[in-house]
Each structure stands twice: as structure tokens, then as C-alpha cells.
Amino acid sequence: MKKIQMVDLKGQYAAIKDQVNTSIQxxxxxxxxxxxPKVKEFQKNLEDYLGVKHVIPCANGTDALQIAMMGLGLQPxxxxxxxxxxxxxxxxxxxxxxxxPVLVDVxxxxxxxxxxxxxxxxxxxxxxxxxVHLFGQCAxxxxxxxxxxxxxxxxxxxxxxxxxxxxxxxxxxKAKAGTIGDxxxxxxxxxxxxxxxxDGGAIFTNNDDLAHTIRGIVNHGMYKRYHHDVVGVNSRxxxxxxxxxxxxxxxxxxxxxxxxxAARKYNAAFKNHPNIEIPKAGNGCETICDNCDCxxxxxxxxxxxxxxxxxxxxxxxxxxxxxxVYYPIPLHKQKAYQDERYNDADFKVxxxxxxxxxxxxxxxxxxxxxxxxxxxxxxxxxx
Length: 383
Ligand SMILES: *Cc1c(COP(=O)(O)O)cnc(C)c1O
What we know:
Radius of gyration: 21 Å
Structural class: alpha/beta
Order of helices and strands: HHHEHEHEHEHEEEEEHEEHHEEHHEH
Strand order of the largest sheet: 1-9-8-5-4-2-3
Number of strands: 14
Helix content: 25-40%
Bound molecules: pyridoxal-5'-phosphate
Distance between the termini: 25 Å
Shape: globular
Strand content: 5-15%
């Protein structure tokens, strides 16, 4: 059996080696390393895949969030509401721009930002909501859009973990994650569902004016060469990364299917265990439906009940099985983001999740034997 890994980038590369190598070689042959034709090609292909008017590539997912907020013209003192249970990049850029982060609790079933908590946190200074589509499924976008409309707020989707996921509204209309709010960010970090071989990111929007503004911001605030109209940044996706991404984009749906298949097998093994809560899928789906990409499993995350998590982690590691805890410390408790405005009692769910969650190996190359070893080892510990 192949060694079990959290993410198997080598196996994934081996399966498409010729295609990726050819794509990279084309860039090297043309030496168009920055803003070359590959970047345009990938941009166009990703726009078509997502059904969004504008994809603006940039250097990483953290930049993408920052640039989205700059593009919207958010100003120091503006309050931006986001989830307490997420990777720190989301709150980091809010703070860096001098905006005021307002962390709120999440929903215990799907780990995404809690709608009532958002509503309670809205003040006259609130300018934007940043839902994070955590672990591969969309936040409750319909409710978030309704709140945003009512209070005249922007919606910035942090889509670093859910590229390729589909959101179905209550009227049946479907949209890809990251094409629903005013603007969205994504990351092409190697382990993400669509990952490059280095750093990369992108911003998505259907708004022509905002896309124009953002295209200037990523390029030193230039709309005309050497004319700097606004303060910008230097944030580019390099052509070699675009070449990798363009080759991998054609496999994204299959990659996500592989993740869903692995999740189905995990679910089947764990579903009736008294110490385990299996992940719920998105949009109110209870299970992982066959033709619904409501969850693309960036992570497969269980909630453990009455279980010594550290001991389980040690048990799995002793059997050569890696696992992860995303995220062990709620953001409102992090030194950098503590704030006297926060009341720990308002973060009940995040506090509990940070103690209960465990993420099992999840990637595109997991085979049945590996899944069998993982599930058996977890169940053996809990028996
Ligand atoms: C990975 C990630 C980011 C940051 O992406 P980078 O490309 O590493 O900068 C932001 N938000 C979330 C939720 C992420 O998972």
C-alpha cells in the first residue's frame, strides 16, 4: 500500500505529468514569465468554468482578499464581519488595511458563518461581510445576500477552500462558489482543490467597474503605463503557475469527484458511531448527493464526542496515518486578534469545534485500501 498522506501531490502529478510538463515547457520556450499568454489563457478558461465575467489572477489567496477589499474602497474604521472559525488570512488582511474585524460565531453543523450572529453584529459602521466557504461548501449565501441588501453591505466570498463547489438557491438556481457575492477571492496554494506548484491566487467578480479597478490595483495602481492613479500592490500569478493551473483545471471536476467518493466511504464507515458526527453537506443536503457538488471536501472533518482527541491523533500517527486539526484556536483568542469588544460566550460553537474537530487525509489519490486502514484505525481506537 502507498504511504498515507494528508495530500498526495506526487501521485496527482504523476497522473498528468506529460500534460503539465508540456504546458510548463511552452512557457519556458517563450520566456514570457510574467503576464504571458498562459496567464490570459488560464484566466479565460477559469472564467468559462465558473461562469463569471472576470477572473483577475494574483500572487496568492491572502493578496486576493486584500485586493478585493481595496477594490471596494473600504476605509479605515469600516467594520468587516467574518467568521471566528477560519484560517487567519481572512482576519489578517482586514486588520492590515486598518479596517475593524468583527468576528462572529459559526453554525455547528456546517462550520460556516452563523446568520443570526452576523445580524447581531451589524452596526452603522459595518461595510462588508466575508463568508468563508469552509472545508469545501458554501456558507448560507441566500441569507447573507438578503442581510447585505437590507443593510447595504458588500459580500466578499473567501473561496480558498471551495473552488468548483456549486451553490443551489431555494428557487433551484445554481451558481459556482465565488460567483455569488460582489467579489470573491481564491487561493491556488498547492494543497487547495485547484493548486499550483508554488503560490497563486485570484479574484472573481461579475462587476465590470470593480474588475477594472482591481486590475489596476494588482499592478501598482496603474491603468496607463507609469500613471499611478491609486495606491496599488504588486501581485501577479506567474506564467509557469498559470501553465500548471491551466493543465489542472480540466481535471478539477474529476478531482472533486474523487474527494466526494472518499468522503462517501468515510461517511459509510463512521455514520452510526456514537462518538463521531460525520460532516453535513451543503445547502441543506444531509448526505453527499450524486449530482450535487454542494460539497467538494477540501477537508473531511469529523466532530468527536467524549473522545480524547490528542490520544486519537497519537494513535493514528503511530500507525503512519497523518491527520490535522483545523482550527485548534478560535481567532478571537489569538493574541493578534483579541479585542475587548469580544465576549467569549458569543463564540460557543467555535470554542467547542476547536476542541472537537479532526480532519482525516483527503485528496484526489486516496484508494480503497488506504481508506480502509484509516477508518479501521479510527474505529479501533474508539471501540
Ligand atoms: C488558504 C487560505 C487562504 C490564503 O491563501 P494563500 O494562497 O495561502 O495566501 C485564505 N483563506 C482561507 C480560508 C484559506 O484556506
